[in-house]
User: Fold these one by one.
Assistant:
Number 1:
Amino acid sequence: MNTTLLQVICCTIKHSAADFKVVEVDPSGLPVDALDYAQPATQPLLSSSEGMSVVDRAAAAPRWDVLRSNEPLERLLAEEVIDQLALLARSDEALPVVVGQVEDKQQRGALRCAIRWHYPNLVTTLDGSTLVASRDTDVFPALERCVGCRDANLILKASIVPDPQLHMHATFLDSATKDDRRAFHAAFQKACSGLFSVVRDGTISITSRRKSVAVKRSREEEGATRVFTHCVVHKRNVETQRMKELISSHCGVTDGNICVAGMKDRRADTWQRVSISGDVRSKLPSGLCIHDGEGSYIMVAPNSPVIITGAPLELGDLNGNKFFLVIRCTLNAPVDDHSADVLCGTLAEKLETFSTSGMLNYFGAQRFGRGGLPGIKILQGDWCGAVAMILNSAPEVAREALYATGDFGAFRKAVNPRTHRDAHLLGECLLEVGRRHSDAALSVKLADILAQSPAWAAACRAAILKMPFYLRQLWLHAAQSHIFNKSLELCADNVSMGLLVAMPPKLPLVGSLDVVDPTTLLVLTSLSIDVSCFATGTVAGVPLRGSMRETVVTPTCCNLRKVTGRQADSPADVWVECSFTLPSSSYATVLLHQLCGLEPTDAPM
């Protein structure tokens, strides 16, 4: 047989979860599924402040409910710094106070909160990593003009130490003008997000924002508690967001308080580190298994102990991922053992070339989902197009009913939230927009939907902004990735695989950073996206700061061999086992695409 005429016409992966194994590699270079795996050292728990520097004292800051007297501040700062802060709080003419150099973000949060509690008329800013205190010329004066110094102090302190039972009153001063009251409400909304205010007959009633679920805390607040549970989770056929939901339900925390170093494939066996805010070791014993339907589960990996540390995981806090894959290569003609061996040898040589020369660092197809790219429509300002794209991912019977009646309630009921999550949630948001807004501009009828009227566009925008943050973030990050892929494709058009050294080392993930190169500008123009839409740093409520991404990455630990003893579905099939390690944010499917010359497809479930 002439083996030179053989070529792979189909590359199929994920025949089972065991055929697609992904193991996170921690920052020290260790795979997290290793026997007796010990997690890398993070911020230790602190219990004493004796003999500590300013930075160490900030790290040992007590919880918010302890920051009520001067005693903790004396433990956090030197006496001369406290004296300078007190003078600054009393005098308008005092110069700003240099508090100290604090490198750790979480430690800064504890220290800034303590200073704000004791001196509400001061604010702290950063000059590099140096913390500087100065007089507040924005929030505190706006509150003081309306309710006086004493009540302004009490309001700001109440915002720092939330009390679920809080119920306080303040009265507007007779001297407060209408503009002063507007400034008060703007300052209150800016500085007191955990409080709720109602004004009646000149009296302000202030209560805590009560919620039925745990309140999602900022990273600075989390850093102040200094307690995080870390474990290794083995999941099978469960996506990362669903894993967070299962853990949050089991441990009684919000999924926003669960952090991972990176996202992992859904249809796969994956091992990764997870951190949960608080000490929940008693709820996560080693070997705990939480099932999520037939063949789907998450398990606390028994190979590594569950520990508590003083810092959460950060996205990107990993060295890469190790992949173990079984691939079915379907060729254009039946093959015998010899030709199969020749094919595997050719693929192994090409994989070895990747380990020396590198491969193009495209984003994989799974980054973009199967429902189009609504993030591109949002960047174009086409809210109707974004909604239509998401709704079109729903079953045809639900779409036909919607465009025949305009009934979003019926549409939502006809869509399965497990199989068509985005469309189901968007139906809920559109229904809520129609119920809650008395604004005529948001009152839409079937004719508005079919005609894409301004009222429909306004309703679409409001509904998109009501969608969960993680979905909006997913869409817009997918749009960034699509733009990067298009830019990389343009750069690679005239570069052969052997000349990847000629590629620009990095291309931008476009955002508010002023690093847009001519190639990316060309792509944005072709997509009808105005670069000014990134100027504010946020799009649809999602921060898009932007960054740079490598154009070429080098896989390591590459191995490829023919699998024997596995039943072939066709005489043209060759089973191949492949393993390699990729840096974080690189895709195994992209490597397979460049290895076999075509996009790999998932086997039917």
Note: The chain has five domains: 3-16+321-358+554-602, 27-44+227-318, 46-136, 138-155+162-219, 374-472.
Number 2:
Amino acid sequence: MRHDTRFRRAILVVSAAATALALTACSSGAASQASDTASQASDTASSGGVTNQLVIGSMLWNASVPFYSNFIVGQQEEADKLGVKLVMVDGKGDLGAEVAGIQQLITQKVDAILVTASDATGIAPAVEQAVKAGIPVFAVNNRVDDAAGAVTFIGADDYEFGKQQAKLLVDSVGETANVAYLVGTLGTSAQLLRQKGFEEVLAAHPGIVLVATQSDNWDAAKSLTVVQDWLNKYPKGSLDAIVGQGPEAANAAKYASDRGRTDIKFILGDYPVEVRNGIIDGYILGTVDQDPRPQGVRSVEAAVQWLTGQRDKVVQPNEYLPLPIVTKKNVADTPAAWGE
């Protein structure tokens, strides 16, 4: 997966997994290296030459997911603009590392923590620890359990996202169709809420049948493998559409088109350049555009507002950002949300 070199240069990404190794001292070499990493992060959080400079921690469940490249850039650019220090922790897709990362930020006594978690329930105890330590926590992009005590959620209304995808599907296939459904990482708030909204709309259209539902784990290679299996299982004329919760099936849609499976309409989620190109070229019908960069920007801005006596400017309990639909009709006027 390609990473945006801008955020590599701009921020320190701390490996929570390495920190966990240091804490458990699995081996002297690994522990020493992890301790050095944690020490460097602590210095970053406390340095900068500005007296009483606010320090914002950001725990991201997996920084290697391409969606988050512009999200991270947005967070860092807003931090630079507002004159605050941003300390990033990469959970690398592991819940234990995410928890360790939040605990690391608590130990560093950051002023606020932005949490983008893989598991709303699994991350809740760590969020509660931060709140009890007097550190306000903001859920960003992915939710955390309401009971954990986060200030607010900033991101997409994933329930509405799923409903929008379903409405686009109904508009394109009518009242009778066989549909396969690609969902993201199981248990994430995005996967659960998008599926809930999607299926609720389809409940009013019983002629549209979900013949298959499978997770691609927000991974393009796995998405392609799943779609290839479906193409073999469902011959031409037996499958009308494939709906993906994310953009990962863009290459799979092209694969299907290149092999003559133009009978299948592809509706995806999010709007990177590969989805935009697919809409322009006609092998993707449309998408729901969730732009990650504004979520990153707004999360840092909201944390600073909360910490500087501007709490009335922070919408609670949810601050939803726009989710426009992009199809052939408006793709020319709608730049991609990320990618080149």
Note: Residues 5-156+292-308 form a domain with the Rossmann fold fold (CATH 3.40.50.2300).
Number 3:
Amino acid sequence: MRTFVLLCSVLTIINAEIIDLSSSDNVIWTFVSKNGSMKGPATVPGGVYSDLQKAGIIGDILNRDNDVLTRWVAFDTWTYTAKFQVSIDDLASRVVHLVFDGLDTTAFIVLNDHSPIGAVNNMFVKYVFDIKNKLKAGENVLNVTFLSPIMAAQIRSSRAFAAPACVPPGYNGECHVNQLRKMQASFAWDWGPAFPSVGIWKPVYIEKYDGAVIRWVTTHTKRVGVDWSLTVQAHIETSKKVTKIDGVLSIALQVEGKQMLKKWKQVNVETKADGTVVEEIELLISGNMIRLWWPNGYGEPTLYDLHVHYTTASKKEESRKDIKIGFRTVEIVESPASEKLGNTTAGKGLTFYFKVNGYPLFMKGSNWIPSNILPELGESDKATIDNLLTAAYDVNMAMLRVWGGGVYESDYFYEKCDQLGILIWQDFMFACSMYPVDPPFLNVVTQEIEQNVLRLQHHPSIAVWAGNNENEVALRGNWYGTSKDFKKYEAEYIKLYVDTIRPIVETLDPERRYLVSSPSNGIESEREGYIASNPYDPHYGDTHYYNYFADNWNMNTYPKTRFASEYGFQSLPSIRTLKTATSNPDDLKLNSKFSEHRQHSPNGYSYIENQLTGHMKLDVNDFKYFEKFVFYSQISQAMALKTETEVYRQGQADWYTMGALYWQLNDVWQAPSWSGIEYGGRWKMLHYFAKTFFAPVLVSPRQLVSDDIDVYLLNDRFVPIIDAVITVDIYNWTSLTPINTKQFPGDADALSAKLQDIDMNYWDYKKEQIFLRFSLDAPGVKSSPNNYVFPVPLKSIVGLIKPNITITVANIVMRRKEKLEYTVNIEVDTIVLFLWLETGIKGNFIDNAFIVTEPTITAKFVCSKYVAPRDLQSSIEIQYYVN
């Protein structure tokens, strides 16, 4: 079968043809275990767990403890076999390559008559094999045999051990994953199960041509006065046996007004030993021909079509790549903090902030883990990527950190981030381990870094590269008992991240910053030999902060930082989501084997309980104890993250804190975790709260130890706030009418946080009887959410009673683009805390978890398919907090 396929991260049309080897009526794939007892039809791209489920050999891998019960899969050897036809004409091409975009992970490849093609050992690499002399007319048989990743890791570890040996026992995982260039979380993590999968997880095809193909395109934009310079580099590839490339390279850029800027050059050069050559074309573009690309919340993420063509001298073949690019500048500024903060304690050290298009922007966002524990599903499930990224966009996020224990995400993921204006902090895939540095390992790492930088570099959403997750601090902090061999591990750390990875990144993408680790002290860590004496120094770089012992609803407990790139607290997913993992009602108890199995964080439930009971009343004898524990855990998580995030946003004023990326956005199974979005897409209370605590304009109060209240005005806009009025309503818990209202003037510079000159206390009232509501009215500010201070823990408040709540759904249904919008009217007779609306109907509430201080409020529900308003009304269930 002849067809066209997607190559790399962009659309490629090649006159030289492609034989697609994905599963189809013409290409039949099967799988079989080592002893032949397990076999069936296979889907390619895919993976063994997916295929075993489809064949009915194993059940739902996320049901109950199936992660452990199906572990035998990862100990076996699996062979994937394809049978396909080629014609005599197909063999006539000068170059015939077999291309695997992704193989997971350690495998041997054989084509016809037991002819070996090659061996692979890195799931993050595209493999290209010359099969010109091995392909035959008629039927061909391709075999890919995958070794057990568990056994492959053990074998490598016996030769080149690197600490730690295993994940903690509570993870129910496997050992030595750091030996494999594979998704590190596939051997288990504190938020996810172990599924050490194997398979052909990305497309496979045969490429045949006479000339050459454009394998990658990188783009380099630079401001030249008011204009822009664009350098396009085409990474052209042919066979190793072809020594010369002769043709024409051309580019065409569509700019404003649908104008097309074109340029071409003659290419007549000798190839490198690997059959590759890099050719570039530079364009100078007038500044009035383009608009800038901006992150979410700061402007439009404008993209422009760039077409890159290579045509052979004979003009018989063309290779083409069509990509979208953006024009923006992004830099990390590490300059003396005294320039911002003066000669103070805060002014010691260096700043750490992102300057985008010349402006210092506070980065609001979260951390992204793989969208599915099975990489082939994370790669192919565009709907889940759409839902998660749109959810991040909807709550004012401007940055996501693609965490280093997962995968380099799909091309579609980065294209979507480009479109939504979501900047990416891109870790390389090394996390929470020391790593070997023997030559074979460094060789495959080199290939991995080169390919992924080349694949992703053109995306305007990529903001920064980072060498690893938490490995500097792990080495300095002796997390894995490495102190006795510190010098050895230090040297290996530098050899991998500094001597091997950094030169590749800086050569291929010199415009972007490469951070050796996260967290780190940035430049200061480098000055100290790359392993800082205190990688958590608040005067430098970025930090990861977790503290489950302090009162995390108290703003005074959090440390200072220049940039918070990880922080978070656990909660349980909703009962509805948990029920997708078990049908046994006895599992839905805190002390059940099911619940214990799902909690991978040591002492996780105790930490949740301590935070929860520190602020809320919960009777262990309540017959709805587990249901309330789940709901209250989400309240506790949301309030703690709200508190900590606002501390960091306030910190822009006195510490020049310039980023808050909480851990974590999404989930891979139905279990307690730090996520704001449950597996399956349901928003936790945290994600709804993020819409408020990441609001562009927010009044943010802080209750001090003295019980005085500082009030900050946070302004993430390019214009100042002037002549604002900050209203403070004091309520008691028994009435919807404020007992006192005070108003104060407010102002804030553009892109700033400012402590307001407000003398605020409530000493005339009993703290347990009142709470405070803060609101803003300012010229030019369309909206700013209310904010609140609860002076004492909720379990100590007096006067909060059980409310009477009436919910009706209006009969008028509005169409909003591809969605239907319903208006939900809510009437109450008293204060309601954390009013939560839930329905089994597929869709979502735009806002939720309301602090209700008015007799009537409205909520909006959106869905794709029509449902009768009365049916929606009858389906809505509510929860709220009451002592």
Note: Residues 625-654 form the longest helix (30 residues).
Number 4:
Amino acid sequence: MTTNYKRTLRTIFIFTLIFHKSIACSIFSGIDKYNNVWFGNNEDFAFSFKNYINIFPKSSQNKYGYFTFSRDTPENGNNAFIAGGLNEAGLAFDFNSTENIFPVKNMYRKVAFPQGDNAILPYILGNLSTTQEVIDFFEKYWFQFGFRSSQMHVADKYGNLAIISPNGVIKNNQMLISTNFDLCVNNNNNNNDCWRYNKANDILKNNEINYDSMVLACSQTAEKGANTTVYSSIYNLNKKEITLFFAGDYKNKYKISLKKLLKKGRKSITLTNLFKKNNTSIIHQYIESNNSTAAIQHYFKNVKDNKEKDFLLPNVVYYYTRETNNFLIYDFLKELQKNYAEDIDIWLLKAIYEYQKGEESLALSTLIEFENKFPDYKYFSEEIRTKFQDKNNTNEVSNFKLKGYHNAKSVFLKYKPFSSSFHPINNIVFLQKSNEGWSTNLKLEKGIYNYSFIVDGEEILDNSIEIYDIQNLIRQKIKCHQKTVGFTKEQNKIKLTIQVPNEEDVVYITGNQEAAFQAPLIMLQNIGGKKREIEINAHLPLEFSIVTGGAVKKGQFENNKEVIKIDTISDHESFSYKIIKWN
């Protein structure tokens, strides 16, 4: 029997909401005895220090000033990646991802927003004032890409609370809790297995709804580990007061009125700048300054509480191993291993860091311990040991090289979005020193691999290797290197026209290339009657299916197949297919 251990660092995140990346999230709204409306949220995802508050004062483009949260970049606070926000009218929203992909109810009656998907959320915060206005908006418009496995939790200062999802709308005017099941499908609040929902429900039903109960609900439903509560936010929608907590620390808060926040002008602020006394933020600043000694000293001196350790250690280690693979965090990784001994990725990273520090005997000892503890995963350690002992295994098929950087201490490949998964584990593929610089050989399965290099903790692209500007169908862009295995190196522009069985059919495309399809979120354009159309840039061979009904039903084409394969084409070629029925 194979034992199931934690695999954290190789996780590939599928964007489950709009273009949005929340994995969990717990959201609560309710009205206190003074008719103040409260709105609380835990933002749960892989921990990141790249979180922003984005401020948008009132302007000629928007009736109301507002602020948004975003992840990764400030730009994501002004497009379809907005992670939540509040406006001057007392309107707030946030999102939960849900477990399933659903068809959008009455999608064939809805139209695209004229300014495009990226303008929808900024428009709502900048111009709408009530929950009903948001509901009415989505009765008419919907996202062309996504918002099929998520729900929007909305509240206004008048006490109108609602959930908007692909399956419909639920309204309430007393209390509303949402986690990661679609309330519009399962509205039997007493029969769900989400512990966060049940915990929040108990807290808010057994306590007066107010600031204190909102803090209690946030702290008691906070996640920790690989997917953690990055921050918590609590709003009083009537007074427009904002309270924030960061990285599981509910002792130190940041409180500000929306009015005062808007006076700062149009800008974006990182959350770490608001929590300079937070131990996670302090350690982050030491590591960013290449002072790992001060970072670990601060940890041992100031982090005594086990609950704080449960948040801080995974947050620091998972962020730096995912983003930079900087072995300045080696001491934190050792501490994490003591507390999270079942996480196999941590053991492998520890061995690699020891090897790259020049401590090969210690690295081999760590691999032996790993094999004794995780015998079912011995093939991972064997592959890494081979790389320790055989620097250039020519039996492997794909070579990665970085020229120069002879004085570097470590070089890794960094997995980039829209990519096939590196083997054995994303973000622990390391390179060996060579005469020209650094190199490694990998056995790669058929796929399209997007990557960059991490040199001593800094991400770089090598100008001597072709650099690609990649954009997927939901218009996410990255710069990276790319290696293809079993696919053509170049992409072809292809137009697909599909005739569907029914005029009201809303259909999506899914296929064999992450950059092209990014999960079954991409809707074909209705060009009239039963015809649907899409243009894609794809490597060959291209394989695709057309799905409907929440990606459950597949189209059967005239040749009785559900999958179309295109091997050779000329650029800008068009193809037409007819679906005879849905299976």
Note: The first strand starts at residue 26 and ends at 31.
